């Protein structure tokens, strides 16, 4: 019977929790189940505490109901099942009086040596502008930001590794640097290394060529925090993955913080070894999504303010409504407006901005047309575009059609009747129903939420 009870418990939790909550906290749990006991393994002490506080009662209740009061004993542990089998001492039973908020070791403040000059592997420094204070929070990045802040509180212990994924230009690098900068603020002696994954590879190749692999290994294994960007570039680079695997293990074993960014969920990166994918899941994996309108406006306002530019509300809304793909594009649009205004000496009015951004807006509109959405959705669900436009009502067609309609409403400026027309002459109430249905399903089903995010990412990139 091993595993059955947990499986039905999972179903119950999935039906009760939001997809994000379920994916973040429940899915990563590993379980060892016997007739009398259910041992849950979480990646770190914070996770254990969180599960204990937020979900343990619910899981207990479920077991009581399910087993007619023949309750299994639940225990919570840090680690993963395979590891625990070998290293029993690592585990922490739930009754242990463990204080999760262990402060990080404070080291004497000395010279800031986060660039190791003597190693020969001098890295890109942290960008001092990428700070938590300049990062605008919204629904789309809330979880990632909260996790990043937790890492600052307890580097190497809170979430290790912290894996941040999402489409281009959505703030992953900004968040990663914010962590590095904040750790350095608290402990200027910390040895933090930020680098792009391609740089890691280039450094390794150079070390191989010059016979300095020992130096290379020592350098990366001696850091307090390794921040490595865009790990998708490791795909199909076997030797680099091998080297990174050992560096990663070495750092995690020593409770040194690792932060990784990637343009997609680790399991979706083709050409990345399974052992790396599985290790990435030991810590916390969080997504950054494209920001919603309000956040885009707030980002524009914040960037304008830091450039000491007054941006009228209607202008900020106009830009945010038209540039939806990512924050980098949004920033680019604002920079263009500011440069044009300074160059021509004109005030930043709505008409001025419409003119200054006309090419950019035309390019965006062309990029995300209803037709493009239909093609992308049809290919994602492996159906034909003509199915989407048809009157067929079977679930395998109707659901993708609703998804495509909802995306068209989200990503284009077309009205409901225009969208209805583009789907083979459907009524605008059908489009409205589709948008509401997808919104509702996103909260109820992980699959729909993932489909929506994947499609959004594909269409926005
Ligand atoms: N929430 C935010 N608040 C303020 N600025 C943001 C936010 N998100 C992104 N930015 C800004 O947008 C730009 C792009 O962000 P960043 O480089 O972190 O994206 P990324 O997700 O790492 O993209 P890529 O995958 O291309 O590396 C940066 O200038 C960053 O400061």
Task: Explain the overall architecture.
The chain is an alpha/beta fold and 461 residues long. Helices cover 55% and strands 9% of the residues. The strands form 2 sheets. It has a 5-stranded parallel sheet, with helices on both faces. A hairpin with a 3-residue loop joins strand 1 and strand 2. Helix 6 runs parallel beside helix 7, helix 12 crosses helix 13 and helix 20 packs across helix 21. The structure holds adenosine-5'-triphosphate. Adenosine-5'-triphosphate binds next to helix 7 and helix 14. This is Chromosomal replication initiator protein DnaA.
Topology:
Blueprint: H1 4-16, H2 19-26, E1 30-33, E2 37-42, H3 45-54, H4 56-66, E3 73-78, H5 81-86, H6 142-153, E4 162-165, H7 172-186, E5 192-196, H8 197-210, H9 213-221, E6 225-229, H10 238-253, E7 257-262, H11 274-280, E8 284-287, H12 293-306, H13 313-322, H14 327-344, H15 350-356, H16 358-367, H17 370-380, H18 385-389, H19 395-411, H20 416-422, H21 428-444, H22 446-460
Parallel strand pairs: 2-3, 4-7, 4-8, 5-6, 6-7
Antiparallel strand pairs: 1-2
Helix pairs in contact: 1-4, 6-7, 8-9, 12-13, 12-14, 17-19, 19-21, 20-21, 21-22
Bound molecules: adenosine-5'-triphosphate.
